[in-house]
Amino acid sequence: MPQITGPTAPGVSRRQVLRWGGLAATAAALPGLTSCSSPSSASDGINTQLVHGATGGGLKDTLDPHFPVTMPDIARVRNLYEPLLRYTTDYEVEPALAESAEPNADGTQWTFRLRRGVTFHDGRPLQALDVKASIERMANPKKPASLLTDVAPLIDLPACRALDEHTYRIVLKEPHGMLDKVLAAYSLGIVPRDFNPARPIGTGPFKAMTFVPGRRSLFRRHDDYWDRKASVDALLILDFADDTAKVNALLAGQVHTIDNLPGYLAEGVERQGAHALISETGGWVPFTMRVDRAPFSDVRVRQAIRLIADRRQMIDQALSGYGRLANDLYGPFDPDYLGAQLPQREQDIDQAKALLRQAGRSDLQIELVTSTAVGAGGVESANLFVQHAAKAGVQVRLTKADPNVFYGDQYLSWDFAQDFWSTRLYLPQAIACALKTSPYNETHFTDPDFADLIAAARRSLDPARRRVLLQDAQRIEYERGGYLIWAFANQVDGYTDQVHGLVPAREQPCSAYRFNLVTLDRS
Amino acid sequence: MSAATQRSPRAAGRAALRQRTAARGWARWLVRRLLMALVTLGLVSVLVFVATSAVGDPVRAILGKDYAVSPERVAQIRDALHLDESLPQRYVLWLRGLLSGDPGTSVANGLPVRDLLGDQIANSVVLVLITTLVMVPLAVGLALLAGARRGGAVDHVISGITLALAGVPEFVTGILLVALLSTSVLHVLPAVTVLPPGAMIWDRPTSLILPVATLVIAVVPYLTRILRANLLEVLDSDYVELARLKGVPEREVLLRHAVPNTLVPTIQVTALQLAWLLGGVVLIEYLFNFPGIGAALVDSVRNSDFPMVQALCMLIAAAYVLVNLLADAASILLTPRARTEMAA
């Protein structure tokens, strides 16, 4: 098994990596010589190779299961590691490495029964002690995994233990009614107890062979995989910094799949023999208003801002039509989502003007800070908002900040800005962004009633009661929250004729990067 | 030497003396230019360092959305960048590393900058070299063709095409070439560069064709037009006129008298284009996913990977200085008057 280096393994020199890489690469005779040949070719047991073009990436790339940074990182993490439970393409939780997750009566202890017959990439069987080590790694209070920051402080690590070889129990300091749903996040993968990111071993459908940050990663099929084994022998993930290069590579047949096909190209690639895969996601790019500072401390101003936006035009122009109307609430795939039941906010300039007049802000002048860093649709929707605001007599000065500035010193303290979030359930999302203790509370929303409802919902083990609590919380955000949420984005990806088995996924691109489900025509 | 032995001993001595003074003049010139180059690079190093260190807190820039929630990584990066030292101290540390061949460690990746950049530098150099090998003969040939038949049909065609192409941005050319040869019309060349780890760009020669073609199309029209203008200027000069009056055939006039006199401007203009190629091929590298230093620089800037940005800036500056130095040396060697002045 060739070793792999990453940010945490400065001891391994790149030269070594390259040498090992060379071995594997000669094995995997790569595409590039002629574009008409299939991206896969035969030698050393690799007869079929799926080549995926991933968006972005760079030297920051990592194979650390718990800290993916870039899009290619997410694609890699999803194929190497697996969490205890996982989200289906419909964004529902299903068993993965754990066959069951059972809370005790008050939700302070969660018992996970592990699936038998699961092996790591190096052949060792999965055991409860591996889960224990993994939980300790991702709930480390000094460096919790990014999708566990809100729950990590609640876990009583010394009290958590393996009950037997296949049973593990998490003990919490406070009750949590949805721990199973939290732990199903893709970046909370289970790793062996002696895990070292320089030897990225997991239980996923593919095992790592070579990894060059910012360029490429080559994975082999994990033959002892417990779930549906991959049909291709190898998976090659290439980083693409540029959209044009990525699309060209797809059209030239150098890659089989790409994520984040620019929406305006979706029809174009169809004409040239490739296909667009369109998936509804729960991703959102909100406008964020600080509710603790004037002028947005006045709820009437916030309401006016929400009535100024022409959401449909934003979807048509900023998202090239690939989006669905949102109603200032997030978590559209949460079974308790309320946004569709409340009156849909639409552009209403008269009403907005009236509200501003009542607030004594008829001559409102504000600065809106945006950046390309918030992703597709961000800057475009900000530009549109400036035009919409002018109709209501609101003067908006648009500042387009460099990503480093936008997420620099002033991030989370802009008065009026934007941000981006991906698919999540309502409760974990609210805990991440709408409480006084939230790490990413851009709007500085600290409503005591709201906080009580969220705290009670988190403790609750009764779905019916939790539904009432969460919907009350959503009503509060709908009435006086600091977000203007205008749409949920649709994900657009591309794939060639040879590829079969991709289905729309609500969470992430290319069927949530589950490449073991993909089959490839031989050509 | 055989020429000298045939002359009288005195003449030989004079020749030797002249050679010695010429060599000394050369050495003096070279030393002066090298010192100037070093001073330039020193100034550049200060500028690069100050510019990359003075813009806000690099750690915040590096961690972005994660700054608030990862104090351990903050401490780690502050440590790696020696941020607790004063700016001059950091500069000295950095310069010392640079001079001893260790430009530091990438912040984004934790690996030595030297190891990360080696392949990229080699790939970029190969791209520029091949482009030069294609572009110089092509431009010189076209200029000769056009210049020799001034006002003729060939001249008009060449002038027309070069004028039209000179105005097209290189990424437009690149996109058109890709559409033509890789994705839409024909499918004969790879659209992007896909290199296995350990492989260098020359292991995938077909991947070089489109990037080289794009760069050649971007540079040759400009070069051709300048060379043609130079050639015409020489052809209109008195000494060429004299040669013609002496009955030297036109072909001879062109090749023996006119062309040698256009060499110096050719070298100077080519050097300028080369310098541009070395640092300015970013768009091309992005379009073809080419693993070179231009794309590495943009990636590093985007990641706020200061050690990488600093190393790359110094590298590109050094290449600029070197190319100009070589061009100047070649120009002097090829200019008889400059040679004698130096010897005197």
How do you describe this structure in short?
The complex is a heterodimer of chains A (about 525) and B (about 350). With about 525 residues, chain A is α+β, with helices and mostly antiparallel strands.
What does this structure look like?
The complex is a heterodimer of chains A (523) and B (344). Chain A has 15 helices and 21 strands. Chain A has helices at residues 14-27, 71-80, 128-138, 179-183, 243-251, 266-271, 299-308, 311-318, 349-358, 378-391, 403-406, 426-433, 448-459, 463-480, 509-513, and strands at residues 49-55, 85-87, 93-95, 98-103, 109-114, 161-164, 167-171, 206-212, 216-221, 234-240, 257-258, 274-280, 287-289, 323-325, 365-370, 395-400, 416-418, 483-484, 487-496, 499-500, 519-520. Helices cover 28% and strands 19% of the residues of chain A. Chain A is of the alpha+beta class and 523 residues long. The longest helix of chain A has 18 residues, at 463-480. In chain A, a hairpin with a 2-residue loop joins strand 6 (161-164) and strand 7 (167-171). Chain A is globular and about 70 Å long. In chain A, helix 7 packs antiparallel against helix 9 (349-358) and helix 8 (311-318) packs antiparallel against helix 10 (378-391). In chain A, the strands form six sheets. In chain A, strands 1, 8, 9, 10, 11, 12, 14 and 19 form an eight-stranded mixed beta sheet that branches. Chain B is mainly alpha-helical. Chain B contains 15 helices and no strands. Chain B has helices spanning 2-6, 9-54, 58-63, 71-80, 87-99, 113-148, 153-166, 170-183, 206-235, 238-245, 250-280, 282-287, 293-303, 306-334, 336-343. In chain B, helix 9 (206-235) packs across helix 11, helix 11 runs antiparallel to helix 14 (306-334) and helix 13 (293-303) runs antiparallel to helix 14.
Count of helical stretches of chain B: 15
The biggest sheet of chain A amounts to: 8 strands, mixed
pLDDT < 50 stretches of chain B:
1-5
Query: What is the gyration radius of chain A calculated from CA atoms?
Result: 24 Å
Q: Hey, roughly how much beta strand do the residues of chain A contain?
A: 15-25%
State the largest interface: A-B, 66 and 59 residues
Per DSSP E runs of 2 or more residues, the count of β-strands of chain A stands at 21
What multimeric state do the chains show? heterodimer
Indicate the low-confidence ranges of chain A by residue numbers. Answer: 1-42
